[in-house]
Amino acid sequence: MIVKDYLISKLEEAFTKLGYDKGDVTLGQANNPQVADYQCNSAFVLAKKLGKRPDEVAEAIAQELEKYSKDFVATFSKPAFVNIKMTNEFLSKIANSVLEDPKNMVKKPEKPLKIVMDYGGANVAKELHIGHVRSPIIGEALFRLNKLMGNEVVTDTHLGDWGLQMGLTVAQLEDDGYLEGYFGRGTNKEITLDTLNEEYPKASKRKSTESDFKKKADDYTLFIQRKKQPFYQIYQDIRALSVAKIKEHYLQLGCHFDLWYGESTAEPYLNRAVQMFKDKGLAYMSEGALVVDVAKEGENIPIEKKSDDEPQRYRNPMPPVIIKKYNDADLYATTDIATVLMRNETYSPDKIMYIVDQRQTMHFTQFIRACKLVGISPKEQELVQISFGTVNGKDGKAFKTREGTTVKLSDIIDMITTKASQRLKENGIVGDQKLALMIGVGALKFGDLSNIVYKDYVFDLDKFSSFEGKTGPYIQYTAARINSLITKTGVEPGEIKVETDEERNIVISLVKMYESFTTAYEENSLHSLCAAVYNLASSYAVFYNNIKVNTEKDSKRKASLVGLSLATLKAITLGLDTLGIETPTKM
Predict the structure, then answer these.
(1) Fewer CB near the terminus (10 Å): N or C of the chain?
(2) 426 and 338 together in one domain
(3) Contact of 74 with 10, CB cutoff 8 Å
(4) Residue 41: exposed, middle, or buried by beta-carbon count in 10 A (0-12, 13-18, 19+)?
(5) CATH of residue 43
(6) Which CATH number does the domain housing residue 287 bear?
């Protein structure tokens, strides 16, 4: 049962009986939970239409509602509110439905969608760091949410493995004598991940100051893209080394992908995609590069120059998208456009979702417009960028080490696992590294997902890993506590009959949690679900402290309380699982 939909249907019946337009029905959570669970404010709008007083309309609605259901009590309060308070009997039905199957109350879209989700997006030959943590965490949660909603989802990590960073890395490795064997000039030196961590940053700095080195890196990038040997073999070896470590990190984060494709996977589609722009007369040469205009009306408006020597500037600038470099090499936009072509011919998705840093918004705007312009993406298909903010330190700046360097993802995982181990030791659990990782990752994910997706947030390890407050470990601890209580009672869960305020509050929190699934789905942000799962855990904590389940003498009453506890555990587990967080049985 979808509680809100059911209540709206009853309001619509009442409106029809009264001769009101049922399209004016509104229903939201009540401002004062002591008075009501839900509140209808439609009387204000209806009064204007009908030429009546708002309080008169609201009172008529409340009186009519009372005739249509025994599941709630409808009352009128000034100035013109219709209050709906669910009965204990109705709340008992809801709780028993969750006990039977925690997915019973998930409101699914009428038409399931076929979706390709693109997240993770780690770059080959670069060490993963704190800046790479949000895409896999948010992406995994959105994937799980969409699956829960009944959508068919294919996930692809879309590795960055075809751009200039590859040419830069190979050029630097050659200059430092690592590749002699590939060129038949001697013996190769061992290349490790630590080697790549040193070589790419070195190459990246050189490209800005050494034009010859930049030209060499450009050439090597083109050689790799054209599969020229030995450059392509070097690239494949570097890629394999990097991907193995990336997979290890993503597995630790609990992120799984159907496809481990990269930019390179779209290589067979590149020339055809570019030719489509040429055939439609959309591509032209500009300063040696092949470009496509994607600006719309109101963009690229020239600003009047004060002198002829002043460069031309524009309001609302929207540069053309470059699909071929001066040396005919492919770019980031080229591979993204070709990847859309590949995905559409392989999967024909209704939607492609990209979970990426908000600083890439210009790039995604450009290439998405280009795909629509040339017809690679059909008009009815959604190409959606879910942009996220940055991870900052307590000073409000990008999170870094004390030395000012970017924090590695492997160090983050070590930090959160160590912190979780310390908290577990305080609870008498020592040496359980698997549990420590589960709690640490849960802390990291909840700390991230509890923020609105597009906003920056502060990485606060102590706050995230606390067993108290609005944190992942607090909710995990609540789940473990419920599991322990159910085990100790030794009683089979029975039919739930809600009697006390504590039980009412749990079931109302359950209802709100299920509504938050819909909110999270519509907003593509998990913060509402995080808040709702936390509120459910908090409601149970009050119940746990006030209602002594183990010492209850009445067997039916005890079975009911155990049933409510199990229903709560199932709901919390579903909420955490959707967030990509595991539920421990002990803490």
Answers:
(1) N
(2) no
(3) no
(4) middle
(5) 3.30.1360.70
(6) 3.40.50.620
Calpha distance 337→469 (Å, rounded): 45
CA gap 414, 459 in Å, rounded: 15
Q: pLDDT category, 401, cuts 50, 70, 90?
A: low
Tens digits of residue pLDDT in 202-214: 999 999 999 999 9
Enclosing domain of residue 452: 409-579
Residue 453 maps to which CATH number? Answer: 1.10.730.10
Q: Check: CB of residue 15 under 8 Å from CB of residue 22.
A: yes
Cα separation, 541 vs 485, whole angstroms? 12
- The pTM assigned to this predicted structure is 0.93
For 296-353, the pLDDT digits (tens) are 999 988 888 888 888 888 888 899 999 999 999 999 999 999 999 999 999 999 999 9
**293 found inside a domain:** yes
39 with 166, same domain: the answer is: no
Find out whether 512 and 29 touch, Cβ atoms under 8 Å.
Answer: yes
Backbone angles phi, psi at 187, to 5 degrees: -115, 140
Is the distance from CB of 107 to CB of 520 less than 8 angstroms?
no
The residue among 381, 401, 419 that closes a domain is 381
Residues 109, 518: contact at Cβ < 8 Å? Answer: no
Region of 451 (left: φ > 0; alpha: ψ -120 to 50; beta: rest) is beta
Vertex 564: Cα angle to 563 and 566 (nearest 5) = 65
403 has pLDDT over 80: no
pLDDT of amino acid 33? 85
Per-residue pLDDT tens digits for 489-537: 999 999 999 999 999 999 999 999 999 999 999 999 999 999 999 999 9
Task: Give the ranges where 51-192 is alpha helix by DSSP (H).
Answer: 54-65, 88-100, 134-148, 164-175
Residue 450 in contact with residue 464, Cβ under 8 Å? no
Looking at the chain, the whole-number percentage of residues with pLDDT higher than 70 is: 99
Question: Tokens 């070195």 identify what position?
Answer: 202
